[in-house]
Structures are given as structure tokens and as C-alpha cells.
Design a protein that fits this description.
By secondary structure, this protein is α/β, with parallel strands linked by helices. The protein has 2 domains: about 170 residues, 3-Layer(aba) Sandwich (Rossmann fold); about 170 residues, Glycogen Phosphorylase B (Rossmann fold, 3-Layer(aba) Sandwich). It has 14 helices and 13 strands. The strands form 2 sheets. It has a 7-stranded parallel β-sheet, with helices on both faces. Helix 6 links the parallel strand 6 and strand 7. Helix 3 crosses helix 4 and helix 7 crosses helix 9. The longest helix is centred in the N-terminal third of the chain and has 23 residues.
Length: about 350
Amino acid sequence: MLFVKIVLTGGGTAGHVTPNIALLPTLAKLGYQVEYIGSHNGIERGLINLCEIPYHSISSGKLRRYFDLKNFTDIFRIIKGFFDALLILRKIRPNIIFSKGGFVAVPVALAGHILKIPIVIHESDITPGLATKIIMPFAKVVCASFPETVKHTTKGILTGSPIREELILGDKTIAMQLCGFDKFDKKSQKPIILVIGGSLGATTINKHIFELLPTLLEDFHVIHVCGKGNISVDACPGYAPFEYVQEELPHIFAAADLIISRAGANTLFELLALKKPHLLIPLTRAASRGDQILNAESFEKQGFSAVLQEEQLENLYLAILDLYEKREMYVSQMQTKETSKGIDNVIAQIKQWTKVGKDIE
């Protein structure tokens, strides 16, 4: 058994953290000593602290493709983050760095390259984000969730996405108790819609769900993950709002008959692994670089997902009814896709590029 050190990095959204968390049990079994580098106040800090592994924070800024006065100040945060990471990596002396992306990973990867530490990165989306593009030249390999991603780099290899095993082990009974749906008798039980807009919520989707609630509750129960500070409608019979869910998420997934979601890549592969019928509402190009639109198009073409563009949200109720009517068709198509090897495939790349028996310069 190996006993080597690995630094994981990535942050900004839960999607840049949860695949790292999915790798932890296997890394532990293989004898890797795991430490994490993230930002001072990002979502990754809270998520990783729950995993009880050492967490090191660095200064972090955002690199924007558009003009913003913050670009002038953030560049100094990034430079400071590089020196923060350099000091931390010299102290930890890891054998390898695994990056899941987000801008906090850029200074870590640059410092790792200076120290000649092998770097493996994972890109979830079809097209690499700016942070991944910056890191790519220094990486040994770019692990990809989508086959379309591989063509963007000579270092790409299709691994699939690491999915947390606990997500498929949820207990519907626990979710029913959490949501208060266990108080309904069997005759009053209705199909359950889960609305989840990612770790930060989805304001536009929330607004339409709030407006549709009286109509939806005639035929469905609704679990609504709104995002921090976004609960505008109180819980009522058949409706259970949450700001954010973590340990409850596997149980809520288990209870859901339909899921309405954004189209972040990690979420897509989680839904695919769960074989849950779902409606994707990707972020618009005005609010993103368009990666969610491409992700959703890929899954729609494969027959895994129903898709509704945000500009068409006035048709949300009809899209929900259509999804429910065709739910068995989507489940059948998802059952044709193997999703269980993402962790093994990524771990294989980490093992291949782990530098053992040599000092970090």
C-alpha cells in the first residue's frame, strides 16, 4: 500500500468541490494522505471541514473575460494566492496535486508547477473554463466527463465524473419525515418534484416555482432548495423549502420522482447515476459562458434529459407535465449508460502520475 501525500484543490461552487469529496474514500484506502487548498471564505471550506481533512486557505481572486474594476484588485489577490500556495506546498511536500477547477486552483497549480509537482486536473463541462485553460499547460493529464471535451486538448482522457457513492444510498422515509410529507395518508400522497438550482440557488427558477405553487400542489408535492436567503414562500402542506441541503441530499434525491435543475456538469452526472427523470434549465449565455447550454444539449441528444431554456420559463408547467408523462422513457434511456467507473478512472490517472520516492524541489 502506498503512503503518499496528495493535495486536492478547487472551489467557488459546490461543483468544484463535490467530485474531490467523491474521491476521498478511495484515496484513503490506497494510503494517500489528503490535504486541501481552497479560499478563505469559499463554499469549499465548509464542505471540506465536514470531511475532517486538513484545510489550507489562500488568497483568491476571479479572472474575468469582461471589463470590471475588480480585475485590477483581484490580480493582486491572485499573486498573493500564488505565494500563499507556494509556502503551503513547500510545507506539505505533496507527491501530486489534483485540481477540480475554479479560480482558487490557478495559484495552486502555478505554484505546484514551479515546485515540479505533477498536476492532474478534471474538467466537468464540455468546454474548459478559463481557470482550466490556464492550468492545462502545466498538467500531466486532463480528465474529462464528456467525450466532446477531449478534443480541446492533447492531454485529454475520458474518465467520466466522480460521483459520491452516498448519493445513491438515500432513504426516502427520512426525506418524507424531513419534509413533513409523512403526515399525509397513502391516498393523499402525490408524486414529488425536487427543484434544486445548485449550491447558490437559482433566482429566476425560484420566482417561477413560487408563482406556480398553487397549481403544482394540486398534483404534486414539492421540495424546493432555494439557495441561501432565497426562501420567499413558507412551508405549507405539500411544500418543503430549504435554503441548502447537504447530508439531507441523498434522502431528498431518493424521494424525488422528478427533478428540476440547472445544467452544471456534476449535477447532470449525478442525475444520470440516480436514473431520475429531470428537466434541465441551463444558465443563459448572458449569465455564463454558455457551458450549461452545451451540457444540456449533449444530454438531450442522448435522450437522458428534457431541456427548457430560461427564456421559455413561461412554459415551465407544461414542461413539467410533459416530463412526468414521458418519465419512463427517460429512465429507460439513462439505464443504458454506465456511470459507476468515474471514481476508478480518475484514481487510475492520479496513481499513474503520482511521484513517489523523489523530493520536491
